[in-house]
Write a structure and sequence with these properties.
Elements lengths: L3 H38 L3 H4 L14 H9 L2 H32 L3 H13 L4 H14 L6 H25 L3 H9 L4 H12 L1 H17 L2 H6 L8 H4 L12 H36 L1
């Protein structure tokens, strides 16, 4: 008995150490591209052109960041991306909340057709819809405009927002809505006062995914935006490629690091609510 207990503790400690080691390796695997990008952004042109690349910059400097800011309007394009991403995510989630509630609580042919539309719409590739989308926006005089791109992102994000929020709406007990109805609350009051507060984790999760999708989207922005003052961050990054496709690695890496900061900040600030919302929707939905 006295010898068995230390062995069991040793096995548990070894198993726990193995778990932490595996988790550390996985985190390094996930963080490696970002760390390599960050290291590249501080390297000199001589180090970038070396046939024997180093993990860390030998003489780190901010020259690539200065060159990137001097060469392209990064701050203005980042502001455009922020306006588009925030507007598209807020509008799409705002439209998805009542729609998801109706689709879950009022089962009908219309709601079933909506569910089918959600699944089918995610199967369309960008190339298939870009020409009719371009013609529609051209007739509405929304080509090469921030509002036009926002509308496109709202339409593109709405199916995903609906699909994701349906699971969270299903997790809200009907008894709470029935109690609110007995107290004299109407459907709108029940939705805003009872259901909506309980959907807070799901709203955060859906808002985050919608924001990141709009922030990183490239194809629609490339085709629909032509004026330099309207272009988003993802399009501006392509300007660091030369005429022959040769990338200016240093400034490109610096600009790419700057482009990842907003997403990292949002995830860092809302990670607890995000993870809680994902688990809630996955378990209860």
């Amino acid at each position: 008995m006295s010898t068995t207990l230390p062995k069991v503790r040793a096995r548990r400690a070894a198993g726990r150490a193995g778990q932490y080691l595996s988790l550390l390796c996985y985190l390094i695997f996930l963080a490696f591209p970002l760390l390599w990008l960050l290291s590249t952004s501080f390297k000199s042109p001589q180090e970038l052109g070396s046939i024997n690349p180093t993990w860390l910059p030998q003489h780190p400097s901010l020259d690539n960041y200065r060159t990137a800011f001097d060469a392209q309007p990064l701050l203005h394009s980042a502001l455009n991306s922020l306006i588009v991403a925030v507007s598209a995510s807020v509008i799409s989630v705002g439209l998805a909340v009542p729609a998801a509630y109706v689709m879950v609580r009022y089962r009908s042919r219309v709601s079933q057709a909506g569910t089918v539309w959600i699944l089918v719409s995610q199967m369309f590739p960008f190339v298939l819809v870009i020409i009719p989308l371009f013609l529609v926006l051209k007739n509405l005089h929304l080509i090469d405009s921030i509002p036009g791109l926002i509308i496109v992102y709202v339409v593109w994000n709405l199916p995903f927002s609906l699909w994701m929020l349906q699971g969270y709406v299903k997790s809200v007990p009907r008894s709470l809505e029935e109690a609110a109805a007995m107290d004299g609350a109407g459907r709108l009051r029940t939705l805003t006062s009872v259901v909506l507060p309980l959907l807070a984790p799901g709203l955060v999760a859906t808002l985050m995914f919608s924001f990141v999708t709009a922030w990183n989207e490239f194809f629609f922005a490339l085709v629909l935006l032509k004026s330099p003052e309207n272009q988003t961050m993802s399009v501006i990054l392509t300007r660091f490629l030369g005429a022959e496709g040769v990338a200016d690695l240093g400034p490109l890496a610096a600009a790419s690091v700057l482009a990842t900061i907003p997403s990292l900040l949002f995830f860092g600030l809302l990670q607890r609510r995000l993870v809680g919302g994902m688990l809630s929707g996955a378990v209860k939905g």
